[in-house]
Write a structure and sequence with these properties.
The chain is 25% helix and 42% strand. With 148 residues, it is α+β, with helices and mostly antiparallel strands. It has one domain. Strands 1, 2, 3, 4, 5, 6, 7 and 8 form an eight-stranded antiparallel beta sheet that branches. A hairpin with a 6-residue loop joins strand 5 and strand 6. The longest helix is centred in the middle third of the chain and has 15 residues.
Length: 148
């Protein structure tokens, strides 16, 4: 995992063609970083990126989130933002590009290229993620489809 300050050392932002190539066979990405909030019971800022541009049907939005919450042992959630949102990707020396939800319209209108993904973004807590909680480190992991 990276220290929070190291995340800011972006070497390059991916363009749309590079983003598409980066997401080839990706099912989802999970990122975790120290939360900027003041509540110590919510030490982690989670973002779950589903590799789809589709809006999830209302009846399965919660089911999909609950699947991730169970697998990641998330037991507290606050300030959830969810939906199809613009996502940019940067290279910073790690094996996989770092995803970043773009919530600021001015950033979208800049030269930053994005793709749309279904995103769950929230503050929370989980049984794991000790490096994030105790050492202020951030990280992300990609899950790839095993289908050829």
């Amino acid at each position: 995992m990276l220290n929070q300050k190291d995340l800011l050392k972006t070497e390059k932002w991916l363009n749309v063609a590079e983003i598409d190539e980066n997401l080839l066979n990706v099912e989802y990405i999970v990122s975790a970083s120290p939360t900027p909030g003041a509540d110590p019971s919510l030490p982690i800022h989670f973002t779950i990126y589903l590799n789809t541009k589709d809006v999830l049907p209302e009846d399965i939005i919660e089911q999909v989130f609950n699947k991730f919450a169970k697998e990641l042992e998330i037991f507290k959630v606050n300030d959830m933002i969810q939906g199809v949102l613009p996502v940019a990707f940067s290279l910073n020396g790690q094996a996989e590009a770092m995803p970043m939800v773009i919530l600021d319209n001015s950033a979208i209108q800049s030269e930053l290229e994005t793709t749309s993904m279904y995103v769950y973004d929230f503050e929370g807590n989980a049984k794991g993620f000790q490096e994030c909680k105790t050492q202020s480190k951030s990280g992300w992991t990609y899950s790839y489809s095993t289908d050829s």
